[in-house]
Amino acid sequence: MASSLPVARPALGPAFRHWRAFDCGFRLVTLTATVAVLVLLVGIMIALIKGAAPAFAAFGPHFLVDSSWNPVIEKFGALAPIYGTAVTSFIAMLIAAPLGLGIAMFLTEICPTRLRRPISIAIELLAGIPSIIYGMWGLFVLAPVLQNTVQPVLIGLFARVPGLSALLAGPPYGIGVLTAGLILAIMVLPLITSVACDVFATAPAVLKEAAYGVGATTWEVFRHVVLPYARVGVIGAMMLATGRALGETMAVTFVVGNAHRISGSLLAPGTTISATIANEFTEAVGERYGAALMALALILFAITFVVLAAARLLLLHAGQQTGQRP
Amino acid sequence: MKRYRARRRRNAVAVSVCAGATLLGLGWVILILLALLREGRSGMSLAVFTEMTPPPGAAGGLLNAIVGSLMMTALAVALGTPLGIAAATYLAEYGRHGRLRHVVRFFNDILLSAPSIVIGLFIYEILVAPLGHFSGYAGACALALIVVPVVVRTTEDMLLLVPDPLREAAAALGLPRAAVITRIAYRAAGTGMLTGVLLAIARISGETAPLLFTALNNQFISVDMGSPMASLPAVIFQFALSPYKEWQALAWTGALIITLAVLALNVTTRTIASARSRK
Amino acid sequence: MKLRTAVAVAMAASIATFTTSANAADISGAGATFPYPIYAKWADAYKKETGIGLNYQSIGSGGGIKQIQAKTVTFGASDMPLQAADLEKYGLVQFPTVLGGDVPVANLDGVKAGELHLDGKTLGKIFLGDIKRWDDAAIKKLNPQVMLPAQPIVVVHRSDGSGTTFIWTDYLSKVSPDWKAKVGASTAVEWPVGVGAKGNAGIAQNVMNTKGAIGYVEYAYAKQNSMMTIDMVNHDGKTVAPSAAAFAAAAAGADWIGTPGFSVILTDQPGAEAWPIAGATFILMHKQPRDPALAAEALKFFAWAYAKGGTMAADLDYVPMPAAVAAAVEAMWSRDIRDSSGKPLYAPSK
Predict the structure, then answer these.
(1) If residue A97 lies in a helix (H) or strand (E), which one and from where to where?
(2) Topology at the third CATH level for domain C6-100+278-336
(3) How many angstroms separate the most distant Cα atoms in chain B?
(4) What 3-state class would DSSP assign to A264?
(5) Does ipTM top 0.90?
(6) How much of chain C, in percent, has pLDDT values that exceed 90?
């Protein structure tokens, strides 16, 4: 800070040096913290890969398509958990996507302004409820209802329909893949709703008013003005919700039935990757068993990573379209 | 005219479907909360807060679980918040236009949405297996790993909301960069950052999976964080899947306690946010 | 400024709390859910008597074995006894604490405990999925008097690694060649059909809530929850109901002291009164424990349990070990369990 100007030097005394040190130190600390966050994530990936290595060494890529899970002869395959994860998430999105979009449309277009806040708060309450409570509610409240009322009806209704009878066959357990999908749907609903609400709100009011001005109905405005604007953002929201559904552990463990089998019926028990790990990790004796579970965790991490990366890119794109930061 | 009527009809159908969807969504909320209140209220008593978890067939409370949860949550927040705020500060202040920012934001979002069981496994591998015992510290570290991305995200967003002219004015007055951040930006974003911390607490209050392999559980009350510690979610998990009536009742009561705490935190967050926006 | 100092003081105080160990460390154990009801009761009584806590987490026998191998707990508990070779390999000692039995339980409207009888072969077929409905001819043949509903059978098994499963599958392997070929015996197997539940407690809860379900639990769970138990046809062809006497009869011919590691398996034992699916539950500890002080405390606890815990065990229909076996176990402790300097951690008080 060499200067030839006649400034008051005393101000640049010890206090200045102290602040400069603090300045450098502060910047260093924050940079270190940032790098630490990065290192953490990389560390997780490395730890998972290291733990999963024996399984891939023993089973090779066949691990991904093997549906056996036999701790006696130490033969493991990831297909049943992957299938369960995929199916439960798919069912969850199938139910939650239209519901969430419908609620978001209601909240942004139709709902009287006074009711908007209370209803959106109520829906967000669903997001605040911890997942273990969803699990308990699913097991103690929903599953008995499904077992005694809904599932027998479904089985009876579709027993003679050629395609669907296999899909909805089997004794009514109450718990199972369908129940897990239902619970997941309720859990991701608030996420879809809130992101969709935000995305719908970005549609320019001017365009909407113009559409109303030429006599479009609410539905037509939504379909032809808001949705095209929101398309990319909506897809991004769906993928975020999918990512959440894929990784959900506690709610699913309670109600999925924990059976390492791929069954054609939605009413049958199954398992998901996270439920398998939660149930079996503390007791996986034997190097291959533990490594197989780590490999499952790695697969889940990889799937979630891909889905979230895609979602983020889409939302980034949507934000760029409307000029907003994602 | 026919086409107009058809359009009106379609609109009516669409609107009622959406209204129906909203009612369905609200219905779930009401059903779940009602079930929680009904089942949890009957078990609620002072004993829940003063007695330890009982062996099967006896009466007891949730003291060790509540204390364990509080301690691990407090430590997790103490560990995760400074780290998160520091990282977010760099992202929002120093590194705003760098490439590091995009990379870190991306990875932070991944960490934010990572399945918490994976985080539990990670902590098991680095803190439990090498040291040879489950501990409350491991549990707190697992929770801290969940706190960090939440705090980073919200703090960064809040810091970015602070208008740059404020910073520029402070710099023009001769304030060093660090002081601009700590004295101006933090103060302006303060309530937002607090909201972020509260949200993180709400998030980890209900997390079970990361605690399963780290803190395990403890049927007695313990304030020694170097050994296994009880936590509300772990106790609820154990008790809910048991056939004992007293245990199931305690599980519901514990679930009610967690839900009320989380809802209270959410309400507080909203109140702070709206108070701030009204200012 | 005042807020800042207050926060600083609070943080310092909390750090101080975190770092001090406020109470004597509890003995930690993990493993089988089979003996959990009696271990919990013993731990409660022991804490009242001596103030020392025993933190036992029932995560399944597989968990007990894994965690003691990983040295993360003071002792592990397993219903599947490790063979002498494995004990040597991991440097463990093994000893039995109580006897109990796996009991098939079901949920059938109108059928009460003890009314339904099954034999090993039929049970194997049910769990293999070959018999799918309750009104199947094979079940009807064994139970001519019982009104069996035309309901599908919902098999409930363990989703976690379990010694209870080991005893169950060991029995099925002995009585059903089909089972032995297709599934085998272990703490965790590839179940052909059914739903998985966590812990003995999980199966109990699942069966109680699912109509038409059949599962297997340790007898204390069936008794505590008044479940519908099924009587079995034993090795000698007699139908027996589960009870402490039946379990003791199964152990009548067991040679505890002569078997290395006390690893006796009690399924399908001869004897007119013997319950065919009985088993003992074992404790695993390191010969050279990581924490000798805690290990010594654990040994004192088990000595107390041998001496004074018999009545509590009998209340829950577990069979306590005979005195001769207890003495042999305690002799083994003082011989085999030592700290790093070679000093034995246990001295028999008698």
Answers:
(1) helix A79-105
(2) D-Maltodextrin-Binding Protein; domain 2 (3.40.190)
(3) 80
(4) coil
(5) no
(6) 29
- For the purposes of burial, counting CB atoms within 10 Å of the CB of A321, is it exposed (0-12), middle (13-18) or buried (19 or more)? middle
With contact defined as 3+ CB pairs under 8 Å, the chains touching B are A, C
Unique residue bearing structure tokens 């066959």: A169
Q: Looking at domain C102-252, which of 3.40.190.10, 2.60.40.1120, 3.20.20.60, 3.40.50.300 is its CATH number? A: 3.40.190.10
Residue C350: predicted pLDDT: 47
> Nearest residue of A to residue C77 by CA position?
A283
Measured between CB atoms, does A259 come within 8 Å of chain C? Answer: yes
Global pTM reads: 0.84
The contact set of B with C (CB < 8 A) is 55-58, 71, 74-75, 78, 128-129, 132-134, 216-220, 222-228, 241-244
Contact B230, B208 (CB under 8 A): no
Which CATH number characterizes residue B124's domain?
A: 1.10.3720.10
Residue among A71, A258, A283 minimizing CB distance to C197: A258
> Maximum Cα–Cα distance for chain C, whole Å?
85
* Minimum-distance CB partner of B258 among A130, A222, A274: A130
CA distances from A266 to A44, A142, A245, A270 (A): 34, 16, 17, 9
Identity of the residue in B84, B106, B270 whose CB atom sits nearest the CB atom of A312: B106
Residue B217 near residue B136, CB atoms below 8 Å: no
Report the b/e string of C261-284 with b at 16+ CB within 10 A: bbbbbbbbbebebbbbbbbbbbbb
Whether B265 and B201 have beta carbons less than 8 Å apart is answered as yes
List C96's β-bridge partners, or say none. Answer: C282
What's the token pair of residue C340? 């790093």
CA B20 to chain centre: 31
In which element (H, E) is residue C29 found?
strand C27-31
CA distance B63 to B42: 17
Q: Among residues C276, C207, C212, which one has the least CA distance to residue C239?
A: C276
Window from A2-16, A219-233, C4-18 with minimum mean pLDDT:
C4-18
Asked whether C163 and C80 are in contact (CB, 8 A), the reply is yes
Mutate to test the interface with B, among A49, A129, A223 (most CBs of B within 10 A): A129
User: Checking DSSP bridges between strand C228-229 and strand A75-76, what pairing results, if any?
Assistant: unpaired
Q: Which residues, other chains included, contact B275 with Cβ-Cβ below 8 Å and sequence gap of 6+?
A: B191
The reply to whether B134 and B151 lie within a common domain is: yes
Q: Which domain holds residue B26?
A: 2-41
Distance of CA A111 to the CA centre of its chain: 27
pLDDT (tens digit per residue) in A252-299: 988 998 888 888 888 888 999 999 988 888 777 777 888 899 999 999
C-alpha count within 13 angstroms, C-beta hemisphere, residue A203: 25
In three-state secondary structure terms, C40 is helix
DSSP secondary-structure letter at A117?
H
Residue B21 has pLDDT above 70, yes or no: yes
